[in-house]
Amino acid sequence: MLRISNNVTLADWEIHIEQVRAQGPGGQNVNKVASAVHLRFAIHRSTLPPFYKERLLALSDQRITQDGVIIIKAQKHRTLERNKEDALARLQALIQSAAAVHKKRRPTRPSRSARRKRTDNKTRRGQTKALRGKVTP
Predict the structure, then answer these.
(1) For residue 38, how many other CB atoms are within 10 A of its CB?
(2) Residue 90's CB: how many other CB atoms inside 10 A?
(3) NCBIfam families this protein is in (predicted)?
């Protein structure tokens, strides 16, 4: 069971974990042992509240397919157990980040003193650059 928040959890049957061989270099062990993990989570078939489902499907994340399936590949660690933990933690972080409500930005204008400081700095910089010209005797 994966806990997303205080009142939202995911059952084990909702998350499909498959063992695969890891890619990349690693010597003899990497060719024999299937220690990498493919985690699949179908958003539509899950027991997540509708708010979570809508927010996840609205994300433009390459780990979410067009069918609404989250696919996470974990192969950082050497053991299968640590890769499973890593994949589950990444799924939990993805769902929590989708549920986070960001504060709406209110457009602001710089103050009069800030505008004055900016223009003063620009003129001072321009004078410095003007002094770099060629010196004529």
Answers:
(1) 16
(2) 16
(3) PRK09256.1
Count of alpha carbons within 13 angstroms of residue 77, beta-carbon side: 11
CA angle 83, 61, 82 (to 5 degrees): 5
Helix (H, G, I), strand (E, B) or coil at 103: coil
What number of residues does the chain have? 137
Find out whether 57 and 94 touch, Cβ atoms under 8 Å: no
34 close to 21: Cβ distance less than 8 angstroms: yes
- On the 0-12 / 13-18 / 19+ scale of CB atoms within 10 A, 86 is middle
The model's pLDDT over 29-71, given as tens digits with 9 standing for 90+, comes to 666 778 899 999 999 998 889 998 998 898 888 999 999 899 9
For the whole model, what pTM was predicted? 0.71
Q: Give all domains of the chain, ordered by start, each with its CATH number.
A: 2-99 (3.30.160.20)
